[in-house]
Specification:
It is built from seven helices and seven strands. It starts with a strand and ends with a helix. It has a five-stranded parallel sheet with strand order 2-5-1-6-7, with helices on one face. The chain has a two-stranded antiparallel sheet with strand order 3-4. Strand 3 and strand 4 form a beta hairpin. By secondary structure, it is α/β, with parallel strands linked by helices. It has a single domain, classed as P-loop containing nucleotide triphosphate hydrolases (Rossmann fold, 3-Layer(aba) Sandwich), CATH 3.40.50. The longest helix is centred in the last third of the chain and has 20 residues.
């Protein structure tokens, strides 16, 4: 199994890059795990307080469960990925079945910050984007998908997104094997990476 870790700042274009990479490969040969599914479940905390929590800090993620799931998939076992709601800031009662495959993509803003997760990766990729581009994407996503108004988005960006990016995410770039500028719009990087993965799979067949 080839494990591809894809990190980068919030709004950097990771999702677009991941989708285009999967489409450039054989989609049936790729499984995908998102770091966002592994936010800690805190039902004991009131909803108003949960929504104020810092979700861009590494401590917000249940890394041990993510590590366990990646390891299980590498062993050929199926796992049940949690489903996390950014509206309630809780895990839902649903789960997503992830089956082992030839390629596993693990994506998320903090995915390259943890050595125990990095050690499981065959290839580490960092999606790079200018701060103003990331901000525009964050504003659009948080208003459309997470029910926040512009004041809430900007407050969160200034208080947590930007400082956490500078403290944790940007420094994790040094662990990347490949740094990809402009995310999903970088067709050359997607083509080269898909060719490399295809060659690796062919050599291991």
């Amino acid at each position: 199994m080839i494990v591809i870790g894809i990190g980068g700042g919030s709004g950097s274009g990771k999702t677009t890059f991941v989708n285009k990479l999967i489409n450039s490969l054989s989609p049936k040969s790729v499984s995908l795990i998102s770091q966002d599914a592994y936010y800690k479940h805190n039902p004991q905390i009131a909803e108003t307080e949960r929504k104020k929590m810092n979700y861009d800090h590494p401590e917000a993620i249940e890394w041990s469960l993510l590590e366990k799931h990646i390891t299980s998939l590498q062993k050929g076992d199926t796992v049940q990925q949690p489903v996390y709601s950014m509206l309630t800031c809780l895990r839902t009662d649903q789960q997503v079945t992830i089956s082992p495959n030839k390629v596993l993509i693990v994506e998320g803003i903090l995915i390259l910050t943890q050595p125990e997760i990095r050690d499981l990766m065959s290839i580490k990729i960092f999606i790079d984007a200018d701060a103003d581009h990331r901000l525009m994407r964050v504003v659009k996503r948080d208003m459309e998908e997470r029910g926040r108004d512009i004041d809430q988005v900007m407050t969160r960006y200034l208080n947590t997104v930007r400082p956490m990016h500078e403290q944790f995410i940007e420094p994790s770039k040094r662990f990347a094997d490949i740094i990809v500028p402009v995310g999903g719009d970088n067709h050359v990087a997607i083509d080269l990476l898909s060719q490399y993965i295809a060659a690796q799979l062919s050599n291991s067949a």
